[in-house]
Amino acid sequence: xxxxxxxxxxxxxxxxxxxxxxxxxxxxxxxxxxxxxxxxxxxxxxxxxxxxxxxxxxxxxxxxxxxxxxxxxxxxxxxxxxxxxxxxxxxxxxxxxxxxxxxxxxxxxxxxxxxxxxxxxxxxxxxxxxxxxxxxxxxxxxxxxxx
Length: 147
What we know:
Layout: E1 7-13, H1 24-40, E2 44-51, E3 54-60, H2 67-84, E4 104-108, H3 113-121, H4 123-126, H5 132-140
Helix pairs in contact: 1-2
């Protein structure tokens, strides 16, 4: 039986970075739903959080999963669920919710798992100091999780 231990830090944003996730309550509902749905698809979400216009998710891959398929399942199903339950999200004001096309994904060493978890956990505090654009730029220059 194969044994796989690969962690991936995913980041994706709302379409056009519209701050649809601008309340803590809406974010908590969405993260909870994504986690519950992931369980049914045998996707192990280690940690999930985000801010007004994006989501961070730390996932441990299973042997038969690909990065692309995981994102397709999570983003597709969650946007469908949000739109189906738009009465729970008054900030949508009748608009259709969509995630932006694409995503960021980076492997995470076991030695820094707690650092990445804390980084994801502290998104609200983090974005009090830094924009999403600055955050993405840092990720692409390997300065991720420095705060």
